[in-house]
Amino acid sequence: MRIAFLGLGAMGARMAMTLVRAGHDTVVWNRSPGKADALVSAGAREAETPRAAAEGAAIVVSMVMDDDASRAVWTDAETGALHGMGSDAVAVECSTVSPGWARSLAGTAEGMGVAFLAAPVAGTLPPAESGELVILAGGDKAALITAQPALDAMGKATHHAGDAGDALAAKLVVNGMLAAQEAALAELLGLARRLGADPVRAFDLLCETPVASPMLKAYGRRMIEGADDVNFPVSGILKDLGLIDGAAREAGAEVPVTRAVRAGFEKAAEAGLSDADQTAIMRLHE
Predict the structure, then answer these.
(1) Measuring CA to CA, which residue among 132, 134, 133, 136 is closest to residue 144?
(2) Which of 7, 42, 169, 243 could be bridged to 64 by S-S, CB 3.0 to 4.6 A?
(3) DSSP string, 180-234
């Protein structure tokens, strides 16, 4: 099956490679040159534009930074992927974009006769590389069936969330909870240290209680060990927290906890940690 993959950042390159490894005829595109070299060596083909990549593809997947990048990749009048897609193909937006843009893009695609699926992913670089992401899919179930070969290669589970906006709302819940737990753990372990307790022992005891989620255990260990490898940077979590804030303002919802979490990560960015892993927020409290 021919699948086009658009956007070869840290997550996208790994997700595209799972398609190649699964034996799909994979065509890739990236805005900046050089990112496709490893994929081409593995058997993929590189296209000059999203539109060229999408031509003849049964499934077109995008994994880019934000609403603006998504808009350019899909809808640009000359190079946009939607303009190169056939009526039997399905567009799959895996990027974490705003729920409003996801719904707008779905409407644009459907207006052009192209089936659309919003499919943001839960997981960082290791599950992206191993094809074990959890995918939150929103859109018509027929489109989901068409896209399943690509989703199966990239993820270990796909869950239907409702429409395109519902999928992004669910993704914002996931990332908001991730950020909130990290920020709270960092400052509370810092408090334990100031109170004269061993923060490592406090964390180990936390892990023995029902309060500690699997995520908190894994990310807390990275915090304590001061892991230098970047699975998801502070700048990325700030982008997602900004999406939550923007969506809340549009919906007239109060999200004081999330805004406080955002302020904590903004302090991390101001301390020069924008490009560090999100768990580097711990450094503010050491």
Answers:
(1) 136
(2) 7
(3) HHHHHHHHHHHHHHHTT--HHHHHHHHTTSTT--HHHHHHHHHHHHT--S-SSBH
Residue 171 is among the residues annotated as catalytic for this protein: yes
Determine the residue type at 250. Answer: E
The rounded distance, in Å, linking the Cα atoms of 44 and 28 is: 7
Residue type, 88: D
Among 35, 141, 156, 171, the one annotated catalytic: 171
- Averaged pLDDT of the chain: 97
One-letter amino acid identity for 52? A
Kindly state the tokens that stand for 235: 């700048």
Other beta carbons within 10 angstroms of residue 54's beta carbon come to 29
Helix 67-75 / helix 99-111 crossing angle, nearest 10 deg: 10
User: Cβ(237)–Cβ(175) under 8 Å?
Assistant: yes
Average pLDDT for 184-200: 97
CA–CA gap between residue 88 and residue 277 (Å, rounded): 40
> Is residue 230 exposed (0-12), middle (13-18) or buried (19+ Cβ within 10 Å)?
middle
What CA–CA distance (Å, rounded) separates 4 from 54? 6
Q: Is 121 exposed, middle or buried (0-12, 13-18, 19+ CB in 10 A)?
A: buried
Kindly report, residue by residue over 71-108, the tens digit of the pLDDT.
999 999 999 999 999 999 999 999 999 999 999 999 99
